[in-house]
Amino acid sequence: MLFRQLFDAESSTYTYLLAGRAGGEAVLIDPVQGQTPLYLQLIEELGLKLVIAIDTHTHADHITALGDLRSATACITLMGERTRAECVSAQFRDGETLGCDGVRLRALYTPGHTDESFSLVGEDRVFTGDVLLIRGTGRTDFQNGDPRDSYDSIFNKLLHLPDETLVYPAHDYRGCTVSTIDEERRCNPRLQVRSVEEYVQLMNGLRLPSPKLMDVAVPANLRCGRAA
To answer: pLDDT digits over 126-175, tens only?
Structure first.
């Protein structure tokens, strides 16, 4: 499988390009609007045809490239069935298989960071959006986030994947690029709790500032990044 991990330094966002082979059909996960020229250049250089662009959830710290990519490539844009972004081409459900020639991803509903967050499970890896991060977990204090949902998504869904499953989050703020389910279970400090109540107390005590672009990014992303 062809796989590229791309990074937007301003928002610390990872975008993932997947294709079954060079010259084949491709999928982009969590694209950032400001990086659209890079995506299009890479797709052209690799001889790929972008057929699907996916957001794991409505991001609050950057503007999505879904709309721009659809205009540039005629790709299908997808988000989970609970999204309020009516601009996407289609919505997917929990358990549904997404992908194209050589790429298969299972949609796994993992709310907590937001109430419409999904993870995407491949054969040997999982794209966790902002629900499970490397040595962290996504905040739960806006966009209908909920620490109890986060706990359930992580402990009762993601941590039930095989230990060797590679973990690729939508963000990292320290330069880490990949982990595994076993590594996060053992080493993620937010997962070393003894109960859901302890996790709720931990998350409710974070008191984090709002993302700088939240007031701009969320309304824009409900329009797939396009101007009103």
So the answer is: 999 999 999 999 999 999 999 999 999 999 999 999 999 999 999 999 99
Q: Which residue has the tokens 């990044």?
A: 225
Among left, alpha and beta (phi > 0; psi -120 to 50; other), residue 158 is alpha
223: three-class secondary structure by DSSP: coil
Parallel/antiparallel/unpaired status of strands 49-54 and 25-29: parallel
Contact by Cβ (8 Å): 189, 34? no
- Would you list the DSSP string of 138-192? ---SSTT--HHHHHHHHHTTGGGS-TT-EEEESB-SSS---EEHHHHHHH-GGG-
List, in order of start, the domains of the chain with CATH numbers: 2-207 (3.60.15.10)
The rounded distance, in Å, linking the Cα atoms of 209 and 202 is: 16
